[in-house]
Amino acid sequence: PRVSVYYCKPDEWRGLMLGGEIEIISDRDIKKTLWQEGWEMYYPEGADDTDYAVLGLFPKIVNYYHQLDSLKFDL
Q1: How far is C-alpha 63 from the geometric centre of its chain's CA atoms?
Q2: CA distances for 70 relative to 14, 16, 19, 21, angstroms
């Protein structure tokens, strides 16, 4: 599926948009590496919980905004 993610610092008029493809990462080692203590309250079975998911974003386009200027990068 295609997706866009936007990060911004509105007080500085800065933003970054990443657009590309997203997929569910099912690699157990990656899921365990990214696991954080305290998440057990949401995923009682830990990194092996079937509700715990890791999404991988593979950007194809990047837009950077600062005040009235912008830059676009195709990857």
Answers
A1: 15
A2: 9, 10, 15, 22
Q: Could you give the CA distance from residue 45 to residue 54 in angstroms, rounded to a whole number?
A: 15
Assign a CATH topology to domain 2-74: Pnp Oxidase; Chain A (2.30.110)
In what side-by-side order are the strands of the sheet with 14-25? 2-9, 14-25, 54-66, 69-74
* Residue 38 DSSP code: T
pLDDT band at residue 9 under the 50/70/90 scheme: very high
| Dist CA 16 CA 44 (whole Å) | 34
